[in-house]
Amino acid sequence: MKLQGIRVVDLSLFLPGPHLTMMMADHGAEVIKVEPPSGEPTRHIGLRKNGESVWFRNTHRGKKSLCLNLKDEAQKAQLLALIDSADVFVEGFRPGAVARLGLDYATLSARNPSLVYCSISAFGQTGTKSQKPAHDLSIQADSGTVFLNEGADGEPCSPAMPVADMTASLMALSGILMALLRRKDTGRGDYLDISMQDSLVAWLPNALGPVFAENRSPVVKQERSWGGNAMYRIYRTADGRHLTLGGSELKFAENLFQKLGKPELAEICERSPGEQQEAIEFLQREFSTRTLAEWSLWFDGLDVCWSPVRLLHEALAEEHLWQRQMVFEDGEGNRHLGVPIKFLHEPASVNTQLPKLGEHNQSLLPLAQAI
């Protein structure tokens, strides 16, 4: 596997750091999760199956657990000795906290110059907000994406996805892999300052036309991606379900309106978003006349970007995701999320075993003492 032989020491909690280190574990890295005496918080959050929380199972498979009290100097010394043999170190504390623990980059890189050290925080290590506490919702609100998530009533909605968390996870993974690649030439590690807000804002290139061109916020429901385009929006069906049109290329509009017996409406879809109300209103009326199941049959074979709005359990039961092994079941009946990074050579090998709290203390701490 691609990351075989890479040792990762992970002090992060909750979602961004644990998710990125699980992806590394899936591809062969040895990931040592350092947990406080109370354990990783997600061990205790949300619904459980077969004794473990689903959240913990989705972020900690294939890892080793080292339970330490980092306020104890002897235990911290053992951790420092273990980090001397690590390739990657990940932490997710508020800026300044690792320095107070004596686990800052300057200290660890002096002991292990080849170490790739990754800090993940809400707003980054510098700037006026660096000490401000925040989780995903607050970061999305502060960054303007909650504003973009406008409901039908014109009010902002709580985001359905922890996008700030997950973008930070992916940015951190990318940065770590770049640093490891560069280390092959220089022998030197590096320090990554990953801000969840930075990562989220970096995902807005297609949303910033009004901001960068005209110094204004978008009128959300008139924008192409959020309802202003007839061929890129959500429609209600007769049974209270919904479907989406998700491709605004003219050929799809022509195919759709031709079959609906209104070919002249296709040209309306060439207008700017926010100026397609005639086509939108026609489609709203039309889609309200049949159930979602009926529309699914109607669309079969038609070259149009469309999809039903599936309930979450429906989506995760869908055959295609199982064929792609993005959802699978282990021998104990636990369902797991699969690996999205699929290599032809040296593919990931998922170890679904979850560590018990402190399970690897005995095997890892003698190693640390011997270094």
Offer a quick outline of the entry.
The chain is built from 16 helices and 13 strands. Helix 1 crosses helix 8 and helix 3 crosses helix 16. The model has no long low-confidence stretch (mean pLDDT 95).
Commentary on this structure:
With 371 residues, the protein is an alpha/beta fold. The chain contains 16 helices and 13 strands. It starts with 6 loop residues before the first strand and ends with a helix. The chain folds into 2 domains: 7-203 and 339-370, Crotonobetainyl-coa:carnitine coa-transferase, domain 1 (Rossmann fold), CATH 3.40.50.10540; 232-312, formyl-coa transferase, domain 3 (2-Layer Sandwich). The protein has a 6-stranded parallel β-sheet, with helices on both faces.
